[in-house]
Amino acid sequence: MKKYVLLILFCLLGTMISAQERDKALEQAEASSKIAGYSLSKVQRWLYEKALPAIDKETGLYIADGHWNYRDTAADCYPFFTWAAWATDQEVLNHEVRSVLDAEQQLCNHVDRIPVPYDLKEKKKIILDYDEMMFQASEYVKDGLIAIVEVTGDDEWLDRMRAIEDDIWKHARIQTKFGKIPSKNVEVNGEQIQALTRLFTMTGEEKYLHNAERLADYYLSDMEWVPSRLRDHGCEIIGGLGLLLAVESVHYPEKANAYAARIKTMFETILKKGTNKHGFMYDQMPSNNSKDTQKLSDGWGYNYVGFLDYDMATENEYFTPFVKNVLDNIMNPAYRNYRWERSIDGFADSIEGALYLLNRIPVANGFTWVEREMANHVVFADAPLKTALISGEP
């Protein structure tokens, strides 16, 4: 049936495409539908066999890893539960998944609507110090709620995201010459810039953009500042500043112009000192001549998104050739089975980052690498990964 619907659509296009192009497109659509159907069936099976049984019957919390906290469970597990329901079973989304959201707010809100973890054995909140509380709340917003809101839109999850952000900034206590900020942790502040710019574009409320600018000014006012960490738990600010620049270029071009030169210099420094000959970034900005011994960052793709944001904001292709270069070089033997973190998480982050870039810059080598690494280390993760780790082969 789907095949005939597609055929009707193509017929409506008239002479815009040839018969050969139409047949090829139909063939691709038919093949893709089989893959999509199989994949979605696996997702739904996981939803019913793994995710739903992980809801704690007494509290209603989703304890996928045996706990309920905001640095891991809420930030990293709950969004996958939500996506699975959104894609395969809207009834589950509107009942069980929403119930988890209700439960975590009722049980875990601590400082106004800023949450803390819940102790399932003691049946009470786990009180955190200020810095850890802000860290976990920021993780939940950036890694958990943003991911959910991008598919659910203007719904309860967006309300939760706004509530936490409003109270994070209400209780910010780190005094700077630009005003109070919630943390000195560059990971938290990078996440905040990413969350605040999105909230501004989704709601139109200026306060979110002003708070993002406060953080950007805090870092960029130091003309020598460059992030020292180029992998997760530090690199989030690279993408955050790129995103902020892109948003400012649309809404406040003068502010974007003020940021652009400083961000360009920062990105140029990262390319000069923080990448290898193929354009891959190191875990850390080298402080000496230790480049050759540094491990590579599995966040390289995420970071380069910020560089592409710069090009989009300034309407040029200054950094685009660097991104094309790294994707062209990705089939070098050095990056076959490269052990990013000695775990599936490292492979997943590196592959996901590459996909972000390939969405904008479709380089053949990049797609080939993604398909190979995805098959070896995600789809068929066990045997190849174990063999590589045991043998010590790259």
Question: What are the salient characteristics of this protein?
Answer:
mainly alpha, two-stranded antiparallel sheet, about 0% strand
Strand content: under 5%
- The low-confidence parts are 384-394
Q: Helical element count? A: 15
Shape, per Cα inertia axes: globular
**Nearest-integer average pLDDT:** 92
Alpha-carbon Rg, integer:
23 Å
Biggest sheet character? 2 strands, antiparallel
**Count of beta strands:** 4
- Element string (H = helix, E = strand): HHHHEEEEHHHHHHHHHHH
Major sheet strand order: 1-2
CA(first)-CA(last) distance: 47 Å
Structural class: mainly alpha
Percent helix range: 55-70%
Task: Please explain how this structure is put together.
A two-stranded antiparallel ribbon has the order 1-2. The model is unreliable at 384-394 (pLDDT under 50). With 394 residues, the protein is mainly α. It is built from 15 helices and four strands.
Compose a concise summary of this entry.
With 394 residues, this protein is mostly helical.
Give a topology summary.
Elements: H1 2-12, H2 19-51, H3 73-88, H4 90-108, E1 109-111, E2 114-115, E3 118-119, E4 124-125, H5 130-152, H6 156-170, H7 186-203, H8 206-220, H9 236-251, H10 253-273, H11 300-314, H12 320-328, H13 344-360, H14 364-379, H15 382-391
Antiparallel strand pairs: 1-2, 3-4
Helix pairs in contact: 1-2, 2-3, 3-4, 3-5, 5-6, 5-7, 7-8, 7-9, 9-10, 9-11, 10-11, 11-13, 13-14
